[in-house]
């Protein structure tokens, strides 16, 4: 048997698997550079930016930026080339052909708003997972669930909503939610 056959076969199979594996957009990453178009996304949903890239034959990658204040809008940058990703809480980025994957971290519910049941809300420092909001709910025996609203969606600052009942989850890109008890 030829010694080069096994490594070559392995590399060929690995390459095919890489091509067939699904590509995902990532929350918390920017892809600076290569911009040829900037568009306001009124819905505030990163999936709208990914869809815009899919429809544009020139697009190779994209970056969606959440609004930072209620006066700024969510923004989509279409890119003529795929640039390296850089960790940044502002954004969701991807390449053409990629779908959006919200990370699964414990019991966090990304892009979910648990509307209603609020007994308290307060401004909180921005955090990619809404960690301070989750901790506030865990520390309060009355709190059963929480919703963290990213800056720019409910006001210029991030807000935490503590809930005395568990409400139905509603898909909304503004928010991260969780159920505590």
Describe what is shown at a glance.
The chain is an alpha+beta fold. Helices cover 19% and strands 39% of the residues.
What does this structure look like?
The protein is an alpha+beta fold and 181 residues long. It is 19% helix and 39% strand. It has helices at 5-20, 46-55, 131-139, and strands spanning 24-30, 35-41, 61-65, 74-79, 86-95, 99-101, 109-113, 118-124, 145-149, 158-163, 170-179.
Strand fraction: 35-45%
The average pLDDT score comes to: 82
Could you say what the CATH architecture of the largest domain is? 3-Layer(bba) Sandwich
Distance between the termini: 62 Å
Low-confidence sequence ranges: 4-23
Series of H and E elements: HEEHEEEEEEHEEE
CATH topology group of the largest domain = Hepatocyte Growth Factor
Portion of residues within helices: 10-25%
Which radius of gyration do the C-alpha atoms yield?
A: 20 Å
Name the overall outline. Answer: elongated
Question: Secondary-structure blueprint of this entry?
Answer:
Elements: H1 5-20, E1 24-30, E2 35-41, H2 46-55, E3 61-65, E4 74-79, E5 86-95, E6 99-101, E7 109-113, E8 118-124, H3 131-139, E9 145-149, E10 158-163, E11 170-179
Parallel strand pairs: 1-6
Antiparallel strand pairs: 1-5, 2-4, 3-4, 3-5, 7-11, 8-10, 9-10, 9-11
Keywords:
single chain, 181 residues, alpha+beta, Hepatocyte Growth Factor, six-stranded mixed beta sheet, five-stranded antiparallel beta sheet, 3 helices, 11 strands, elongated
